[in-house]
Amino acid sequence: MELTELEQRLGPFCQHHYDDPAAVVSEVFVMPGHAGFAYGFSASSKGKTEAWFLRLPPPNVNWKGTADVLRQVQVLNALDGTAIPHCSVKWSGDDLQWFGRPYFIVPQLQGDVIRMEPGEWADNLPRDRAVRMAEQYMTALANVHKIDWEKAAPGLGPAIAFDEDVTRWDRFFERAADPEELEQAPLVREKLLSNIPQDAPVGIFHGDFQNANLFFSSDQKLLAVIDWELVGIGATLNDVGWICTFSDSKAWANGEGGRPMFLDPDTLVDIYTKAYGDPLPDLNWFRALAAYKFAIITGFNLSLHRRRKRHDPKWEITKLSMRSLTTRALQLLT
């Protein structure tokens, strides 16, 4: 949606929802990191100006899966009344008169996600400060996992079976670019399926719990866990395995293709375990699953980029870790 059209649509929306025919919309812009389907804007009414974040699904797609923005509303509403930092939904709905698509709107936050690139704000933070930040977000994660989803967000179910969380990536594997970099993936898949955990906890999982989705203030206070597009019901250790993989130097290529590490997996697991209060059965299985998933996701997104379906040259760099991710998965399963 062009910004001019969006501003024209936001005017009547805000006038209606503020109950103020004189309400004025300004500062409409595309938010970074959302492929053009999340926007910021300000609304002024009765002498007060507020800044908002608008999320829309992509155009011309089925409103399912990651494009089902109202699914995200369910989990954000479930977090209301908890101590979990999040963005509370102000307005949402599927009334197409406003934007031609379902939508939700939350307050804009002032701060940034954890950025580790050289020269960025979280690069080379003192360890004690990084640990204090991790205590905030790993505790928040443990509290998400403790929510009784059947009472708080039943519409997010049913739960994904553990074996399905392995096999559902098969179709992406078949379409991945540079398949030689995934030559170990079938063996990882086999080992995952032959060692399915039997007693791992089930609940709400975020689906992409890593630095880019942890929003902090300038004084390192966690303001919100953001970007719930992949939320679901299933093994909650998926989230722990995911952030461990993104914090595991052994899973990534050295040099180009590598990634800066905020904290090591052992530290994160220790903080989470204390917050959760129970043992974490079969955690290495979930770490291996995360590495397997992301290797395949990388190959698939690289294919989209090369076929000019979705321009994103960063995958040409990330692909350098496809082999090391599957190698690490095998190590964790042995």
Keywords:
334 residues; alpha+beta; Phosphorylase Kinase, domain 1; 2 domains; 14% strand; globular
What does this structure look like?
By secondary structure, this protein is an alpha+beta fold. The chain has two domains: 3-107, Phosphorylase Kinase, domain 1 (2-Layer Sandwich), CATH 3.30.200; 112-333, Alpha-Beta Complex (Aminoglycoside 3'-phosphotransferase, Chain: A, domain 2). Helices cover 40% and strands 14% of the residues. The protein has a five-stranded antiparallel β-sheet with strand order 1-2-3-5-4. Strands 6-8-9 form a three-stranded antiparallel β-sheet, with helices on one face. A hairpin with a 2-residue loop joins strand 2 (38-45) and strand 3 (48-55). The longest helix has 24 residues, at 283-306. The radius of gyration is 21 Å and the shape is globular. 37% of the residues are buried. The mean pLDDT is 95.
Give the CA-based shape.
Answer: globular
Give the distance, in angstroms, between the N- and C-terminal Cα atoms.
49 Å
Assigned CATH superfamily of the largest domain: Aminoglycoside phosphotransferase (APH), C-terminal lobe
Question: Helical stretch count?
Answer: 13
The biggest sheet, with number of strands, parallel, antiparallel or mixed sense and barrel status, is: 5 strands, antiparallel
CATH architecture of the largest domain: Alpha-Beta Complex
Kindly report the average pLDDT value: 95
- CATH topology-level name of the largest domain: Aminoglycoside 3'-phosphotransferase, Chain: A, domain 2
Q: How much helical structure, as a percent, in the residues? A: 25-40%
Low-confidence residue ranges: none
Rg from Cα = 21 Å
With strands numbered from the N-terminus, the spatial order across the biggest sheet is 1-2-3-5-4
Provide the CATH top-level class of the largest domain.
Answer: Alpha Beta
What class, by secondary structure content?
alpha+beta
Percentage of β-strand residues: 5-15%
> How many separate structural domains?
2
Number of β-strand runs: 10
SSE run? HEEEHEHEEHHHHHEEEEHHHHH
